[in-house]
Write a structure and sequence with these properties.
Elements lengths: L1 E9 L10 E8 L2 E2 L3 E2 L12 E8 L6 E9 L9 E9 L5 E10 L4 E5 L12 H17 L2 E2 L8 E2 L15 H20 L25 H9 L3 H10 L7 E2 L11 H4 L9 H7 L2 E5 L10 E2 L2 E2 L6 E6 L5 E7 L10 E2 L5 H42 L5 H6 L6 H11 L13 H15 L7 H7 L9 H24 L3 H5 L2 H13 L16 H23 L2 H5 L22 H7 L3 H14 L20 H26 L20
Antiparallel strand pairs: 1-5, 1-7, 2-3, 2-4, 2-6, 6-9, 7-8, 10-11, 12-13, 13-16, 14-15, 16-17, 17-18
The structure holds fe (ii) ion.
Length: 669
């Protein structure tokens, strides 16, 4: 007789437990066990519990290969899903082997779990496992398929409804309930005030403050007090929600004829634009990507989106100040260069049009495409091509948690043709055209922060916390990834012969970057170093970069005059013709303002079901080495978190978005 100890962990998520019958069969190199029901006295499989059972066999099964788990219905009850975390099997020889599962299981479903140490495909030596792995990948490729969302954009997963996604990647029930609750609260609050759907124009800027009562952040308050100040305007291009757009300017573009006379009053005494450019204190935001995109129509008239140019100056007090704005690419008399010395509302309008175009670049390109949609490509390619026992699946999958769910659901509510973003000035079609243009120009190096910062000449600009925190995080993630990848790939040849890894990157190149060789993205991996860099970029994108462009949305967007996705009036063409009334007529009406504010609330809300960067509550690795690497990764992150908290305590406007404690381990919102 041989005895196997079976320790089954039921998740601690809400409703994780089940009343159904659970059966287990063990498969070993020397045979298999009976299909055995796991049944102890009392309730089995309650939420957050571990049940210990025994399976007896006539003799040892030899090397343990697979654990088959089946869930049969208890009669007369409705569906009772089970969140099955893991099972640890202790063999008669005394070896404890981890079989991770971490997924919902529906009635009648069976799962076959791989356990023990991570294995690459070519390392498999047992015919049963070779066959099992082959079937697993065929099944995964039918479960997760590619679909074209729109020509020229990254491909997406083929599910139209989030509720149809396979159980293993669905949202937990508690999370979807919370999101629904938030929506209900916001809706109720706005309805009570009679603001939803109102076409009224705001009568004064002060009236906009009446939108919400219960949601305020220190930063949203600060922005609503200081939004008109040039200093806060410039600051946002470094530490706001879109820190990836300005570049150091060493020579003015010929289509932006700013003269020394125009900007001299805003520079320090005794200097000139030329000297400041040489010193590296002049920066440019060129929005030429927006040029010629057709905006949406509103009441039969097209709205206006400008492709502006904004010149910024880092002054001796280390404040980044806008010093000249031209709202269209081609200079002309109807396209004057606006200056801080112009009448207040002219300058304010010029700044608002730049921020309007910037907000669409931020939402469509930097947020949706560069984080959400590319994350979806990395995820679908991983689900299709890696076996669950592959080391890189174990490394990556925690960073893809809920991403397909949030994107699939978001395509209906947020960025679909009827979604909230479609009421922006560019509208649905315009935003897609913008994304298409952006993807064709996206390079691999632009997604790798160290190269991105160097290419934009921002290595030494002061008070750039996104860069400071982001580069430290890049390095910490890189060290962790390097340790794990080098542990599993002792040489480049292991990389070359790993077909699952090669299939993963090849699908990413084809379905994400649409085979664009000029982008510099790899289509295959030849070295361990290439794999380390790519995986660093992937984890950085879905954690740090997403936090940078996502988490500050309420802070900066909720005060609509600071930045608006929609402007109604055409941009100014002459100076001295505007007033506060022009500003109020240009801004969204009452109903539009509350829709945007509600959206940003929802997008930057915190849920209880949050996994912070570097914490891996799901135990997937069975070997001590990667477990130790995770501990070191966590220690580094916690050390950085303390340093950032200390730094922030000394800042008037703290930069909190890249504090590791505030960054999620994956894109979930
Ligand atoms: Fe997001």
């Amino acid at each position: 007789m041989a005895e196997y100890k079976i320790e089954v962990t039921t998740g601690d998520k809400q409703y994780a437990g089940t009343w159904d019958h659970i059966y287990v069969t063990l498969f070993g190199a020397n045979g298999q066990s009976e299909r055995t029901e796991l049944d102890n006295y009392g309730f089995d499989f309650s939420t957050g519990t571990i049940g210990i059972y025994t399976i007896k066999t006539s003799s040892s099964l030899g090397k343990l290969l697979l654990v088959k788990v089946e869930k049969d219905p208890l009669l007369f009850l409705s569906e009772d899903e089970w969140y099955f975390s893991k099972v640890v099997v202790t063999t008669p020889e005394g070896e404890a082997i981890l079989f991770p599962c971490y997924r919902w299981i529906s009635r009648g479903e069976l799962v076959e779990l791989r356990g023990g140490k991570a294995m690459k495909g070519f390392e498999e030596d047992h015919p049963l496992l070779i066959d099992h792995r082959k079937k697993e990948l065929t099944h995964k490729k039918s479960l997760y398929q590619w679909k074209i969302m729109a020509e020229g954009l990254p491909h997406i997963n083929h599910s139209d409804n989030a509720s149809e996604l396979p159980a293993e990647i669905r949202y937990s029930k508690s999370k979807s309930t919370e999101a629904d609750n938030t929506k209900t609260i916001i809706g109720l609050e706005l309805k009570l005030k009679g603001l939803v759907g109102s076409n009224e124009k705001w009568e004064s800027i002060e009236d906009i403050k009446k939108i919400f009562w219960c949601k305020k952040t220190t930063m949203s308050e600060y922005v609503s007090e200081h939004w008109k100040e040039d200093n806060i305007y410039g600051f946002q291009f470094l530490n706001g929600v879109n820190p990836n757009v300005i570049k150091r300017c060493s020579e003015l573009p010929p289509n932006f004829p700013v003269t020394e006379e125009m900007v001299k009053p805003f520079l320090a005494e005794g200097t000139s634009p030329q000297k400041e450019m040489e010193k590296g204190n002049i920066f440019l935001y060129d929005q030429k990507k927006m040029d010629g995109i057709t905006p949406r129509t509103y009441n039969g008239e097209p709205l206006h989106v400008t492709a502006g140019l904004c010149l910024l100056y880092m002054n001796p007090e280390n404040k980044l100040m806008p010093i000249a704005i031209q709202l269209h690419q081609q200079p002309s008399e109807q396209n004057p260069i606006f200056l801080p010395s112009d009448p207040e509302t002219d300058w304010l309008l010029a700044k608002m049009f730049i921020k309007n175009a910037d907000s669409m670049d931020h939402q469509a390109v930097q947020h949706l495409m560069n984080t959400h949609f590319l994350a979806e490509v990395y995820t679908v390619a991983a689900l299709r091509n890696f076996s669950v026992i592959h080391p890189l699946y174990k490394l990556l999958i925690p960073h893809f948690r809920y991403t397909l769910y949030v994107n699939t659901a978001g395509r209906k509510t947020l960025f679909g043709p009827e979604g909230a973003l479609s009421i922006s000035s560019l509208g649905y079609d315009g935003l897609f055209e913008l994304m298409r243009r952006a993807l064709s120009e996206t390079t691999y190096s632009s997604l790798c922060l160290p190269e991105n910062i160097t290419a934009r000449g921002l290595e030494s600009i002061p008070n750039f916390y996104y860069r400071d925190d982001g580069l430290k995080l890049w390095n910490i993630i890189n060290s962790f990834v390097k340790a794990v990848v080098e542990y599993y790939y002792p040489s480049d040849s292991e990389v070359c012969k790993d077909t699952e890894l090669q299939d993963w990157i090849s699908e990413i190149f084809t379905h994400g970057f649409l085979g664009n060789k000029a982008s510099g993205f790899p289509a295959e991996f030849h070295t361990v170093e290439e794999v380390i860099k790519f995986i660093t970029m992937v984890i950085f994108t879905v954690t740090v970069q997403h936090a940078a462009v996502n988490n500050g949305q309420y802070d900066y967007y909720s005060w609509m005059p600071n930045v608006s996705l929609l402007l109604h009036k055409p941009p100014p063409t002459t100076k001295g013709q505007s007033s506060m009334r022009t500003i109020l007529e240009t801004l969204p009406d009452v109903g539009e303002t509350v829709s945007f504010a509600a959206l940003t609330w929802l997008l930057s809300d915190k849920y209880t079901d949050v996994v912070p960067l570097g914490s891996y509550p799901e135990e997937r690795f069975d070997e001590p080495a990667p477990k130790q690497m995770i501990k070191e990764f966590q220690a580094e992150l916690s050390f950085l978190s303390e340093a950032i908290t200390l730094r922030n305590s000394q800042l008037e406007v703290p930069y909190t978005y890249l504090n590791p404690a505030e960054i999620e381990n994956s894109i979930t919102i």
